[in-house]
Amino acid sequence: MRRYHPGYDFRRAHSIAELAHMAQRRLPHFAWEYLAGGAEEELTLARNRQAFAEVSLLPRTLVPWETPNTRRMLLGREVPLPMAIAPTGYNGMLHRDADIQLAQAATARGLPFTLSTVSTNSLEQIVQAVPDVNLWFQLYSMSDPKVQEDLLHRAQAVGCSTLLVTSDAVLLGNREWDKRNFVRPRQLSLRNKVDVLGHPRWIRQALWPHGMPSMANLDRYLPADQRTASGAAHFIGEKMDKQLSWDFLARLRERWRGQLLLKGVLHPQDAERAVALGLDGIVVTNHGGRQLDGVPATLDCLPGIVDVAKGKLSILLDSGIRRGTDILKACALGADAVLLGRATLYGVAVGGQAGAGHALDLLSQELRLALTLLGQPDLNQLSVSRRAAAGTGAALTVS
Ligand SMILES: Cc1cc2nc3c(=O)[nH]c(=O)nc-3n(C[C@H](O)[C@H](O)[C@H](O)COP(=O)(O)O)c2cc1C
To answer: Which among 49, 132, 246, 278 has most CB atoms closer than 10 A?
Structure first.
């Protein structure tokens, strides 16, 4: 299919791919690579998409139309769609107050929003701007127990229902574009500084008038003269707990009264340990292909995890969700919900809150249409067969 050039108005984007295309033109080169890139050869980044392509949909015919049901229970609350916004750090580089904008877009649609530890709006700013947000907080475990405890205390104080502990990023993956684009943490190379000058709309939406944003959640732990993007990057590099272990998670299970999820599971035995620890959920993720290159697509890991953990805790999946049919396939294979990373970031990069909302609406319209065309209007009734139905040529078939 020839890709239609959608122009510059994000409302005219008919797919997440078109929003991505617009974001690429809007953002300077370094910001685009930060957003879209993966680690090393980007094998995992590509596998994430390929895995969805390899699952077939086998529709039933002559099923009278009815409004598709996409509602389900997720972590103790009913959600209108099986999706939430994933934690992503440094969103303010895409658009000023991008975390607030994402939270607004999600809340307007009854969906949870996850704030990263390394966000550019703080926990307190989010709840002040979006009081009715269903706020989840993603924790990067800190080696300084005081900082760690303070982050947990703040998350609780602002009413976070859910805590996600990220376990696949104690060290950053090998992202060569980052090394090329920055001469020091958050210090752009000359070539990139020149490129920035060619993106006046981005300068207006993200840089003007305060320059590169700092990591607002962490500001209070930094000396006043280091509350900058590079100061925070240095801090996080130093203070991230490299000894993150199951013992830590067991202690956190005692400490955190809300829902507790482990984000970074690919192996069924890790899913079993999460069940044994009494966690409320896991996120099957490869960090959007940004960490260890060569790991499998999350969709390929899902069946093995579902076999050992389904019904014992909530199973969320992310990495590569770009279409409503991807959500449908993930749910058919046993995910309770998906997290959206880049899909909504492309939207926020080109249209702020409305752009993020547009991304969410595209995905939900696609999901509802796919359920109808599949002849299975209830998301909770999907079935999957592991043998190819005659003539589909596929290993997995959803109906
Ligand atoms: C720009 C960017 C920043 C991210 N920052 C974080 C982060 O701070 N914490 C975290 O747990 N995951 C982070 N992730 C991973 C996402 O939570 C999620 O796992 C991933 O984006 C899913 O893949 P997708 O982008 O293909 O949907 C980040 C991903 C991207 C693209």
So the answer is: 49
